[in-house]
Amino acid sequence: MLKALSGLVDTGNIRTLDYQFARFLTSLYDHDLLTLVGALVSHQLGHGNVCLKLDSLDITHLFGCKDAESRQLIEKSGVAPDAWLDTLKAIPLITDGSSASPLVLQDNRLYLRRYWLYEKAVSDWLANSQNTPVNLSGMHETLSRLFTRSYPFIRKQLTSLVADDIRPQLIKWLDIEKPEQIDWEAVAAAIQADHWQTLDHLIPESTCLNWQKVAAAVAAMRRFTVISGGPGTGKTTTVTRLLALLVEQGIAQGKVPDIRLVAPTGKAAARLTESIGNARSQLNCSEAVQNSIPTMASTLHRLLGVIPNQPGFKHNRQNRLHLDILVVDEASMVDLPLMARLLEALPDHARLILLGDRDQLSSVEAGSVLGDICSFASEGYSPDQCEQLQQLTGFDLSPFQQANGSSLRDSLCLLRKSYRFDAHSGIGQLASAVNSGNPLQVNALTNSNYSDITLHTQGEKDYPYLMTLALEGYRAYLNEIVQQGSPETIIAAFNQFRVLCAVREGRYGVAGLNLAISQTLASAGLIRTDAPWYAGRPILITRNDHSLGLYNGDIGITLPDGVGRLRVAFEMPDRSIRTFLPSRLPEHETVFAMTIHKSQGSEFDHTVIVLPDQAGPVLTRELVYTGITRAKKQLDLFACQPILEQAICRATVRDSGLAARLATL
Ligand SMILES: Nc1ncnc2c1ncn2[C@@H]1O[C@H](COP(=O)(O)OP(=O)(O)OP(=O)(O)O)[C@@H](O)[C@H]1O
C-alpha cells in the first residue's frame, strides 16, 4: 500500500504529508486498510475537509484517481468497502476518542484526533453558550431609539413622490410585511406635506420587520450570536448599535464592558476599523456611550498573541483573554482550529458576536464553521425566542416560528437587504443569482443592460481589452506616485481597482496576468520592469512574519522614500502606515492580479474577474459569488459561458461533523 501511495505522490494526487502520515501509522500498526484511510484522512484535510466521511466516500475516485486505479487501491487494502467500518473499529489505533489514539471514528466519520478535538471544543463551547440568562428590562426602549427609522435616508431612495410609485419603495426601505394594513393615501399625503415623522403612526412597527433590529435583539439576549449577510446588508451598522445597547446596559450596572473588534486578516481589520468608525458617528446615543465603543480593530492572531515558531497562542485555556465582548468580522474566513483556539481563550462570561457572509468561500484551512453554524438558520426561531423577540422589537415574528430545531437557531440572524446595491444595480442581482445557483438567471443578467456589470468572452480580442482595463484601472495610483501623493492616498487609489483570478497558473491565472499587466504598464511608461524592485510594484505577502506584523494576504506598495531608496508601504489594521525595506519582507509576490481566495475581506470599486478557459474543481459557486461581491461599483467578468455555468452549478460541500453535533443542541 505504501508503495502505491508513494506513486500517488509522484503523480501529484496526494501530498508528501499524506504519504508520511500513512507511513507513520503503518509503523505503529501494519494494516493496509489503516495505511489507506490514514492517507485519505490527511488528503481530505488538504482539501479543507475536517474528516473522512466513510458512508459517502466516492470509491471510484479515491484521491481523485481514475476508476481502475482507485479500485486497485481498494483491492490492495484487502477489505471490501462495505466491511471497512467494522474492520476499522477493530484497529487499536482508531478509537471513539475516549482514549488517546491518532485517529477517531465517530458516526461513520474518521478524524485525525487533533481535528476531532477541535470540533468537539467548538461544539461544547456553543452548547454551553446557549444557557445564559439575560436581563431584558429596558431593552425595548433602547432598541427603539437605536433603530429609529432614518427618514432622510428613505427620502433619498424615493425616485419620485407620486403616490403609486412610493408604495413599493417604502415597502422595501421600511421592511413593511403587512402592506394591506396601511392607509396608503394618508401615507402619500404625509410624504407630500413632508411630515415624515407621521409615518411612525401611519406605518406602525407591528406591520414591519426590520431584520437589523431583530439581529441586535437576538445578540442582546444571548452570549453567542452570528449575524450573517451579504455585502452592504448592514452587519457593521447593526453590531455598532448593539454595542451601544450593551455599553448603556454596562454603564447602568456600573461597568463599561471591555469590547474588542477583530478580523482574520489585516485588510479586513482595516476595513472594519473604517466602517465601525463611520457607523459609530451615526449612533443615536450619548457621546460617552459612543466613545466607549472602540474604533480600532486588530487581527485575530494579534488578539490571541502569536508565539513565534509555535502553533499555540499566548492566550489559551490557561491564560484567558481579558475582554467582555468580542466581535469577529469576516468570520467565514476563520478555520476550525483557529475557532477552537479562540473559543477556549475566551473568559467564561464573554459574549461572542460573529459577523460574516455564510455564502462566501470557506476558510483556506479545514472546516466551514460559519457555514455549519448558519445551516440552522433555515429552522426558524423557537416559540420562546419568537415571543421574546416580539416583546423586544415590536415585530410579529410568528411566520418564522418553528416548534422543533437545534437551540442554536435562536443565536442566528440573517440580514437580507443590501443598503449598498439598489434595484438598479446589476452587481447585487448577479450576486444573488449566482448564490441561488441559477445559470439561466445569471445569463439573463449578464446579457441585460445593467451599466455596472459587463460579461466578456475569452476570445482573442478580449485579452487586449482586459489589458486596457488594467492599464486604466492602475493608472490612478501610479499617477499618484509620480505626483508624490501620501502613502495613504496611493494605497487608497490602488485599492479602487483589482484583477481577480480563479487560478494561479496559465494565461488567465495570477502568474500569466501579473506578467501581462506588468508588460502593459511598462509599455505605457507607467512602471519600469528592468529591475525587480520599482516604484509602484504592488506586493502581496505570502507568508506570515509575526515579528514584523506582516501576514499572508497583506498588500503593500513599493514607494520611493525621498532619499533614493525604495520602501514598501503597508496599511496596518489600525489604518496606520508602516514601511519596510524590500529586503526585509517575508515571502511575497507581485499583485496586479490576485486570486479570489486572497481577496476575501477586501472590496474594490472596480473589480475585474477572470475565470480560466478550462473547467476545474476550484471553480465553484462560492468562488464566483465571493469574486462578484468584492465589486462595489463596477464589475467586468471575463468568462466563457459554459465555464461560468459549471461553476455556478457546483456548490462546495465541506465534510465535517460540526453540523451533526450542533443539531442535537
Ligand atoms: N438601516 C440602515 N439605514 C440606512 N443606511 C444603512 C442602514 N444599514 C446600513 N446602512 C448603510 O449601508 C452601508 C453598508 O452598511 P454596513 O457597512 O453596516 O454593511 P456591512 O454588511 O457591514 O458591509 P460589508 O459588506 O462592507 O461588510 C453603509 O453606508 C451604511 O451606512
TrEMBL record:
Catalytic EC class: isomerase
What domain of life does the native source organism fall in?
Bacteria
Binding-site list for ATP: G229, G230, P231, G232, T233, G234, K235, T236
Q: Which Pfam families match?
A: AAA_19, RecD_N, UvrD_C_2
Q: Which reaction does it catalyse?
A: ATP + H2O = ADP + phosphate + H(+)
Keywords, alphabetical: ATP-binding, DNA damage, DNA repair, DNA-binding, Exonuclease, Helicase, Hydrolase, Isomerase, Nuclease, Nucleotide-binding
InterPro entries assigned: Coronavir_polyprotein_1ab, P-loop_NTPase, RecD, RecD_N, RecD_N_sf, UvrD-like_helicase_C
Show where the UvrD-like helicase C-terminal domain sits. Answer: 591-635
EC annotation from Swiss-Prot or TrEMBL: 5.6.2.3
Domain RecBCD enzyme subunit RecD N-terminal as annotated: residue spans = 11-111
The subunit field of the Swiss-Prot or TrEMBL record says: Heterotrimer of RecB, RecC and RecD. All subunits contribute to DNA-binding.
Q: What does this protein do?
A: A helicase/nuclease that prepares dsDNA breaks (DSB) for recombinational DNA repair. Binds to DSBs and unwinds DNA via a highly rapid and processive ATP-dependent bidirectional helicase activity. Unwinds dsDNA until it encounters a Chi (crossover hotspot instigator) sequence from the 3' direction. Cuts ssDNA a few nucleotides 3' to the Chi site. The properties and activities of the enzyme are changed at Chi. The Chi-altered holoenzyme produces a long 3'-ssDNA overhang and facilitates RecA-binding to the ssDNA for homologous DNA recombination and repair.
Q: Which family does it belong to?
A: Belongs to the RecD family.
What HAMAP family does its record include? Answer: RecD (MF_01487)
Query: What else is noted?
Result: In the RecBCD complex, RecB has a slow 3'-5' helicase, an exonuclease activity and loads RecA onto ssDNA, RecD has a fast 5'-3' helicase activity, while RecC stimulates the ATPase and processivity of the RecB helicase and contributes to recognition of the Chi site.
Supply the NCBIfam families for this chain: PRK10875.1, recD
Please state what the protein is called.
RecBCD enzyme subunit RecD
Naturally occurring in which organism (per UniProt): Kistimonas scapharcae
Instruction: Give the classification, highest ranks.
Output: Bacteria, Pseudomonadati, Pseudomonadota, Gammaproteobacteria, Oceanospirillales
Q: What's the gene? A: recD
